[in-house]
Amino acid sequence: MNSAIVTTTTGRAPVPNEGHLLAALRDLMPRRATPLNLDEALQIAERQAGRLRRELGLHSTPALPTSIVGALPFVRVTHEPQLPAPGLLLGTDLGWVIALNAEDIHARQRFTTLHELKHLLDDPFVTGAQLDPLAERVCNHFAACALMPRGLIKRDWGNRIQHPATLAKRYAVSLQAMTIRLRTIGLVTPLRRGDRPDLNAAELRQLATKLRRAWQPPAGSVPITEAS
Ligand SMILES: [Zn+2]
C-alpha cells in the first residue's frame, strides 16, 4: 500500500501511553540483532494479528470493528479528505495518529487502519529506509490476518460459506482482499497466470475440467508418439 510514515522530529517521536496491548504485540517480535527474513516477518505478523483479536476479545467476530483501533490509548484515527495516500502514520509528541483517506471506500479504510497499526507496532524495530517494499507487504499481511483470520475463514469454508463475494461482505473487506487471502490460506487454487475470475472452489474446478479439454486430441486423430 502506498502509505507513508512521518515523524515530527528527527528520529522517533516520543509516544506516551503505550499500553499493555502495544507491549504484548511488540513482545512477539524476537529481540535479536539480525533482521527477520520475509517468511519470519509474515509469520510474526499473523501471530500479532491473532493476539490483537484475542486481547480485544474479538477472536470469533468475522467483521472486526476497526473503529476500535482509534479507541486504543496510544493512537487516534482521523479521516482526512484528499490525503495523498490511502493512509499515513504520524508520531507526535502527544501520541500516534493514523490518518485515513476519507475518500477511499469503507473496506479499504478498514484495511488501511490495520496496515498502519502494523507500522506503529514495528516502529521500534525499523532502522533503514522508511518506504521498504517488504515492510509494506508485511503490513498488508498483518491487516489481512487481522481482518480475515485463518481459523475463522476455514470454519466458514467448512460450513460451506465459500463464495469470495459472500465472504468479503461477511468480513467487510474488498473482494480483492478476500480473494488474495483465500489464495494465501490455500482454500482457492491460484491460477498460474493471467486473469483470476471470481469463482468459488467448486466452480473453479468445473471450469478447469472444461478448459483441460483444450489439450485433448480431437476424436479420430492419430496420437503423436515419440520416435522409437
Ligand atoms: Zn505502509
Overview of this structure, please?
Strand 3 (87-91) and strand 4 form a beta hairpin. The protein folds into two domains: 4-147, Arc Repressor Mutant, subunit A (Orthogonal Bundle); 152-213, no CATH class. Helix 1 runs antiparallel to helix 2 (38-55) and helix 6 crosses helix 7 (175-185). With 228 residues, it is of the alpha/beta class. The termini are far apart. It has eight helices and four strands, in the order βααβββαααααα. Helix content is 43%, strand content 9%. Zinc ion binds next to helix 3 and helix 4.
The small-molecule ligands in this entry are: zinc ion
Structural class by SSE content: alpha/beta
Into which percentage range does the β-strand content fall? 5-15%
Sheet with the most strands: spatial strand order: 1-3-4-2
Q: Determine Rg (CA atoms, Å).
A: 22 Å
Estimate percent helicity: 40-55%
* Number of continuous helical runs: 8
**Would you identify the regions where 5 or more consecutive residues have pLDDT less than 50?**
7-17
Number of strands: 4
**Can you write the helix and strand succession as a string?**
EHHEEEHHHHHH
Q: How many domains?
A: 2
CATH class of the largest domain: Mainly Alpha
Mean pLDDT: 85
Shape: elongated
End-to-end CA span: 56 Å
Labels describing this entry:
single chain; alpha/beta; 8 helices; Arc Repressor Mutant, subunit A; binds zinc ion; four-stranded mixed β-sheet; 4 strands
